[in-house]
Amino acid sequence: MTELHDAEAMISDLPPSPAVWCSGLHKRYRRRTAVDGVSFTVGRGEVMGLLGPNGAGKTSVIKMLLGLVRPDAGEVLLLGRSARDPRSRSRVGYLPELFRYQPWLTAAEVLALHVRLAGVAVPEAERRECLGTVGLADRAGDRVGGFSKGMQQRLGLAVALVARPELVVLDEPTSALDPVGRADVRDLLLSLRERGVAVLLNSHLIGEVERVCDRVVILDQGRIAASGTLPELLGRRELRLRLDGVGERAAARLAAVGRTTRSGDAFTVVLPAEEESGAVPGLVADLVGLGVRVHAVEPVRISLEERLLDILRTGHDEERP
Ligand SMILES: Nc1ncnc2c1ncn2[C@@H]1O[C@H](COP(=O)(O)OP(=O)(O)OP(=O)(O)O)[C@@H](O)[C@H]1O
User: Which of these, 47, 127, 131, 268, has the minimum number of CB atoms within 10 Å of its CB?
Assistant: First the structure.
């Protein structure tokens, strides 16, 4: 008995298992490899963004995580349990990319149905509040068949949230929403994080991902092209210059600072991570000394969109080993 209590005490002292843990996921559809060795974790209370071009494998990964598509290889644990275990599934909320709800049911009935399916007791007042959170408070008694696409997506969000999930997986949750609806979803994601709910968000709206996500995984052709926290991914700074009269020695001086690209008189130099505060004034002084005319100098931190395009163009994340 004491030993059992000791074991329970030891387990309760352990940090909670990640919301999502997956390792070596592979999926082929006939000859086409859709997902090729994808591994990542989503911590409890973490908002993680999945980014990548059309066909990169994002939805396939999500479906494998949720047990909706069987991986050819790889392992998945949701909330510390197998993805097929009903005990983990009942604590996961999911909004699919292509959503459709029973058109003959009212919004309130759809929520009641999903609460029953999840096997969780959620009082009616709480279900109504959930509809209010997604802006459907006054449509609870209306049939879903008469809802606009955006309203159906809002209902889908309510379905994903209503059974008090510990992990919420949202596949393009704002694709049908108006700008106000998008801003509402952003607030919703932040409030989920505050409550310790983990979120996996697949979205093409990079600005949205940049605002709400703690960490990002970038998929390209079924593989992880880059991943990290936003500061890790965006930590890179660049120096943008407009110069004329750049000869060989000046070009070499620019290249000595970092990788340099040129488009006409516009030069972009990647600044090293451990850039000394004197590096930029020193460079400008040297360029002037080499006869270069300096029209503009602007150090910038790149946006997630620029970073994403850069990673997808070069095929890998040059910042990381
Ligand atoms: N059921 C299927 N049968 C055959 N091929 C599939 C199937 N589902 C996905 N694929 C293929 O797998 C690849 C990845 O598709 P997936 O839907 O996972 O990409 P995605 O990153 O979610 O794309 P998007 O941003 O366009 O939604 C694509 O080449 C797609 O054609």
Answer: 268
Residue nearest to atom 18 of ligand 1 (CA): 57
Q: Is the CB of 80 under 6 A from ligand 1?
A: no
For ligand 1, atom 27, the nearest C-alpha belongs to 54
Domain 237-301 is found in CATH 3.30.70: yes
With beta carbons less than 8 A apart as the criterion, state whether 223 and 60 touch.
no
The boundaries of every CATH 3.30.70 domain in the chain are 237-301
Superfamily for domain range 15-229 = P-loop containing nucleotide triphosphate hydrolases (3.40.50.300)
Q: What is the pLDDT of residues 7-39, one digit of tens each?
A: 666 666 667 789 999 999 999 999 899 999 999
Task: For a ligand 1 pocket test, name from 28, 32, 70, 201 the mutation site with the most ligand atoms within 8 angstroms of its C-beta.
Answer: 32
The predicted complex's ipTM stands at 0.97
